[in-house]
Model the fold of this input.
Amino acid sequence: MDRPVLLFLAAILAGFALVKVPLSGTVFAAFTPFTNFIGILAILVFSVVLIYKASLALLRK
Done:
């Protein structure tokens, strides 16, 4: 398997982790909207990259 693909999958999982992390009741509770935005952005960007790379791989064969 291609190594960048695994890196993109790890970035998507990290985005989901940022969205799901419970920050309420901690010092970092004020950063909840920021972590949600960064998580959603990471999920969207790396998902689009994976779809693009998959479509290129399908068209080449």
In short: The mean pLDDT is 92. Residues 32-60 form the longest helix (29 residues). The two ends are 16 Å apart (CA to CA).
